[in-house]
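Can you give me the bound-state structure? Components:
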Amino acid sequence: MTALYFVTLAILVAAAFLIGRQRAQSLITAGAPSLHSLPSYHGMLPMAAVLVAMLLTYAIGTTVVAKYAESSALAVLGAETIADPLKRSAGLRDIQNIATGKHSGEPSALLKDAAQQFASASAFGKWVVYGLGSLLGLIGMGYFISRISPVYRARNIFEKLILVIMGICATVAILTTIGIVFSVLFETFRFFFDPALKGRPTVSQFLFGTEWNPQAALRADQGDIKTAFGFVPLLTGTLLITTIAILVAGPLGLFSAIYLAEYASPRFRAIAKPILEVLAGIPTVVLGFFAALTVAPLIRGWGEQYGLDVASESALAAGLVMGMMIIPFISSLSDDVINSVPQSLRDGAYALGATKSETIKNVILPAALPGIVSAFMLAISRAIGETMIVVMAAGLAANLTANPLEAVTTITVQIKTILVGDQEFDSAKTLAAFALGFVLFVVTLILNVIALQVVRRYREQYD
Amino acid sequence: MTDIAGTDGPAFRLDMTSDAAKRRIRKRYAAEARFKAYGLAALAVTTLFVAALVFDIIRNGIPAFTQHSLMMDVAVPADFVPADKRSNPVAIRSADYFPVTRDALKAAIPGIQSRQGERTLVRLLSSGAADELRDRLVADPGLIGKTVRVPLLLSDDADLYFKGSGTPIIKRNGVGTATPSGTTGEITILTSSNDFAAEVVAIKQAAKAKADTLAIEAARLATFGGQSLAPRIAEINAEIAELRARVDSPKVEEVLDGKLPSKLVEINGGLVKLTRLTDISVAGEVLLPLTSAAEAKPGNWRVVTYATPESNRKVSDLEIGYLERLREKGFVENRFNTRFFTAGDSREPELAGIRGALIGSLLTLAVTLVLCVPIGVLAAVYLEEFAAKNRLTDIIEVNINNLAAVPSIVFGLLGLAVFLNFFNFPRSAPLVGGLVLALLVLPTIIIAARAALKAVPPSIKEAALGVGASHQQAVFHHVLPLAMPGIMTGTIIGMAHALGETAPLLMIGMVAFIVDVPGALTDAATVLPVQIYLWSDLPEQAFKLKTAGAIMVLLGFLFLMNGAAIYLRKKFERRW
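Here's the bound-state model for the whole set.
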C-alpha cells in the first residue's frame, strides 16, 4: 500500500514536471510574447504542488487512519477495556500482533473479531488516504498547469515556496530546543508537583537532600518503602570527577596550546596537531572501555602497592580519562585565541627585552585570558554532560565524598541507569531522570552562554 | 620604574657584566627552558596517552579477528539424514550434529573412559561447532555418508587458552627409571632416583612465598581497622597458619591442591596429574590413559608443571591435557574469524559477531544523513543568504550555537519523551535513533555549511545577480556548488560524530540484546558503539577481546570517514 502510494507519487511528480515544462515550451513560438519564467519553473511548480499535497496527505492521513483503526478495534472489545489504560494497551498490542501474524497461541474469538475489525478499518483507511492523496495531487498539478501562460510568474511563486521551506528548516533548531525544554520541563514539573505521584520530593528535598536512592520507588504503589531523591551526592560526584578532569586537562591542554602556538615549528605542528585531533575524534565509549578495563585496574594496583584502598570504580580513573577527552577542546580553543593575539603585542614585549616565556606569561596569556576562560568553561560543560566514560568507569552508589579513590556517581550515570530498561512514565523514579536532565541542561546552558558571552566581549578588544 | 632620560640624579646604567646580572640572566634563560619543556611535556603526555590507548585496543583486539578450531575428519553416517529427505535443506539443517562431532573428537583422543572426562572433552567444542559442517552438508548433500574434513569451532575458553591466556608449561626430563602402577584411574609412580625432591622443595617455597604475601595483605587490612574487615583478616590468618605449618612440617610428603601450581607426569603416552608426592614416589590421577604399565627409561618420561595454579585459570588441568594433546596431533588451527563479521550478537563469545550492529549503524546513519543534509544545508543557506537581520534570526543563531554544546544524553531524553512517549514510535528502531542523531548533528552541519558559504567570495554572487539571475538562482546555481566541498567535509565529520555516539541511543532503547540482523528501519536494532558498550559489560574474558575488536572496526570506519573529509578538503580547498 505504502509502496503503491509512493510509486503513484513518483509518477505524478514526473508527469507534473514534464507536462508543465512541455506546455510552457510550446508557448515559445516566433512572434508570441516571451515567457516571464523559464519553462523548467513552469514544470517545477506543479511538481512541487504534487509533492507537498501528497506528502502532507500521507503524513496526516496515516496518523488519522491508525487512530481510527485502533478506536474501531477497541470498540469491539467493549467500553470496559477502553476505560482501563492497562487493558487498553494490552488489547491494542494483542490486536497488532494478530494483525501482523506475530501472535503466539490461539487468540480468543473476541480478540480475533477486534483484529479483523482493525485490519479492515486500516485497509479501508489506507485506500481513502491513497484516493485522497492522488486526488489532491492531481488537483494541485492541474491548477498550476492550467495557469501556465507567458505572463504567469511561476518562478516567483516557486521561489517563495522554497524560501518558506528554507525558513522551516532553519526553525528546526529552535523546535529542537523547544522540544528539549518542554519535554524535560514538563516531566520535571510532574516530578515535583503532580499530586498523583507517590514518593515525589519537594524541591528543597531534591536540591538539598544528601541521600539518593531512587530504586525503591520502582512503582507508584510502593510508596511506603523509603525513597530518597537528594541531589547533593550526585552533584558532588559530578563535580569531583569534573574537577579531576580539569586538573588533568587544564595544564596539559593549555601548555600544549602554548607550545603549539608559540614554540613549535610548522613541521612539528603538522605532526602534533593531528594527534590531538585523533584524540578528539575517539568515541567516548572507547575511552570508557579504556578507563574501565585498563586505567581503573592500573590505579587500583598502584594504590594497593602504597597500601591505599582504591575502589575498582574510583572517581580518579573516570576523571583522568575524562581529562584526556577534554584536552583537545582546551588546546584547540586556546590555540585559536593565542593565535589571535595581535603580533604587535609580542613585538612590543620582545623589544623590551623579554624572553619568549616572559612574553607569554605577562603579555599573551593576559590578553588571551577571556578566550581561555571560555575554553575552560566549555570544557567543564562538556565534562559535566559526558556520559559514556562515567557510565562505564564510575560507580552507581551515591557516596557523598571528596575522596577521589572512592566510587562516586554522576548525574548522567543516574539518568542512564534509571532510563535504560522498561520505564513507566508515572513513577517518581522515571521522572527523576528528567529532573536530572533538566538540571544538566540548565547548568550546561548557563556555562555555554557565559562562555560565548566572554568570547564575544573579548573579540571587541582588538578589532 | 626606571628613569630612562635621567635628568636629575645619577644616570641609570644597565649593568650587564656583573656576576649578579649574569646570574639573573642565567635564571631567566633557565625559566625559559623550563617553560618550553613544560609545553613539550604536556604534548608528550597527551601523545603517550593516545599511544597507550591505541596500543591497548590493538593488543586486545587483534586476537578477536582469529579463532581456533579443530580441523577434523568427521564421519557423517549414511543414515544421518534419510536418503529421501536429502534434497530438503531444512531436514539437513535440523539434524542432530552433536553425536557426529562428539564421535570425531573421541576418535582423536581415544581411551577416555570416565563420563566426566568425556563431558569435559565435548565441552571444549563450541555449541556452534558444527555450523560449518552443516553448511557444507546443505550445500552438498552428497557428502552424507562420507568422511568430511571440517573445522570444528572451539569454545571461548579453549580458544583463549591457545591465544595465550592459559599457563606457562615447564617440562623436565625424568632422571630415574619410572614405573607406573597402572594405566588408568588412581595410580602411583615410583622412580629409581629422587626425581621429585626438587619439586617438594619448590612446593614448600611456593607455600612460604604465598604465606608471606598473605601476611602483608593482613597487615595492610589491619591498618584500616574497622569491624567489617575483621572476619576477612581472621580468614587470612588461618590460611597463613596452615601454610606455615606445611612449610615447617618435616614430612617429605606433599599434597597438591588447586591453589598451587599443578604437577603432572607424562609417561608411556599418557598424562598423570599428581595429587601427592615424595622424593621418589608420586600418586596421581590418570588424565590421559597410559598405553602400558611398563617402566619408562630416563629421558622417556617427563615431569610437567602448569605454573598458574588451577584455581586461578579458566581451563582445568584435564582440559589443558586434552588441548595440548589435540595440538600435538595437529588438529588445532588458527583461522580468520569470518563469523565476527557475518553473525549477529550471541551470548556465546565465540559465536558473537558485529554484523547486526554494523547494519544497525548503517540504517541509523542513513536516516540521519537523509534528514540532516537537506535540512542543514537549507537552514544554512537561509541564515547566510536570505534571512532578514532581525531578532528572530539572532535567536536562531544563538540557539544553534547553544544546541551544539548541549550534552548528547539530553537529546536522548528528548527522543524518549517526544518520539517514543508522545508519537509512539517503535522502541530500539534505527528510525528513531536516526532522528535523534539528526537533531544532534544538525547544529554541526549548519555551522559547517555556513562557514563554507561564507568562504565563497561575494563577487561570485554579485556577478550572477549582475547578469540577471534571481537571488535564489545566484545562490543555488553558483554559490552553493562552490561551497559544496566544505559542506561535504562538515557533513562527513558530523556523520563520524553520529557514528560514535552512544548515550542518546541508550535512552531510546537501542541497548536490547538483539540476535537478528535488522532488515528495516523499524526493526529492533543496535549500533556499533552500543554493541561495544554491551560487550564491555559482560564478564567473559573473550568478550573483552571482542569489544576491543569491535572498537578497532569502529575506529577503522571513523578513520576512513575523517580521511575522506581531509582528502576532500585538500582536493577542493580553494583560496579566493
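A couple of observations. Residues 64 and 546 of chain B are 5 Å apart (CA to CA). Chain B touches chain A through 89 residues (CB under 8 Å).
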